[in-house]
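Milestone M4 deliverable, item 7.
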Amino acid sequence: MRKQKNMNKKRLSRVFWIFLISMMSLLFRSCTSPNMIFANAINHDELTKQLVVKSPIVMEMEKLEEPERVLEKEEGSYHLISSELKKVTIEGIPTYISAIVSYELEGDQLPPETTMVTLHDERTDSDYKRQLSYLNMRETEVLWEKTFSFPVIISNYDAEYFQLADIMISKDEELILYASTILESMGLSEDYYHIDTITWSGDSYEKDGEVFREALAEGEKRIRFVDVTYGAEIKTPEVTGYQYISTYEMPVKKVEQMKKEEIEETEEVGNEAMVFEQSESFSKRVLRFLQENITVVAISSTFLLFVIAVFYIWYKSKNGKQKSQDLT
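Output delivered:
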C-alpha cells in the first residue's frame, strides 16, 4: 500500500511540472520580438513602370512615323504595349501682328483706316489673311508733280458773259484769272493744287440749243509718300493634325529604395531589441512582460491555481479512501 501511494505522488508531481513547464514556454513565446516576423513577411513581388509618349503632331498622315518598339532610358528599356492613332484639332495661336504699308497720297488725302495683310502659317505651310488697324503714319517724301489737269466746260459761250459752273465770266477776260475760284468750286485747296494755265481745247459747239466750248486747265499737285503702320491682335487658323499616343512598360522591382529602407529599419530594430534583451536580466524581462500583459497573466494565473486546487482535492480524496480501506 505504501509503495502504491508513493507512485501516485510521483505521478502527480510529474504532471504538475509538465503543466508548469508548458505555461512557462507559452510565457516566453509571448515575449518573442514581433519585428522578426515582420522582416520575414516582406513581399518581393515585381511591378511594372509605365511611360506614355506622345508623338509630334503632323498635318499629313503620310508623314506620321510609327512609334518605336523599344525606348532606351537611363533607368532601363521600355517596351511598347499599346499605341493609339488620334486626330487632333489644334486651336489657333493668339499673337500680335504689325505691318508697314507704303502709300502715295495726293493733296490732303488720308490712308485707309484698315488694311488686309496676307500671312504665312508654318504649321500648314499655307497662307491666310487678317485685317489690321491703322496705328500711325510717317511721311518719307513730299513733292509737287506737274501731272494735275482737268477739263473746263463753258456754257453760253456765244453771250457777252458766259457761265462756268456758278461763275459768270466776261467774254473778254482770261480764264486763268479765275483759277482760285475754279479750284474752290471743285472743293480743292490751293495748299495742295495749283493751276498754271487754262487753254481752249477746241472750237465751240452747240448742244440742245445752247453753245458750249471746252478748255483744259493744267498745273501741279502736292504728292506725299508715306509709310503707314497697321497692327492688331490676331489668331492663327485652326488646323487638324495626327499623332500617336503610345504606352511603354518596364518591369521593375517593388520600389527598391523603400524595400531597402524597410529591411534596414527592421534589422536596426531587431538589433536594438537583441541588445536590450541581453542587457536586461531574466527577472526584469518577466516583470516587463507582466506589466504589458496583465490581463493574460491574471487569467493564466487564475487558471493555474484552479488546476492545482483540483489536483489537491483529488489527491486528498484518494488518500482518505485509501486510509479507510487500510483501517478496515
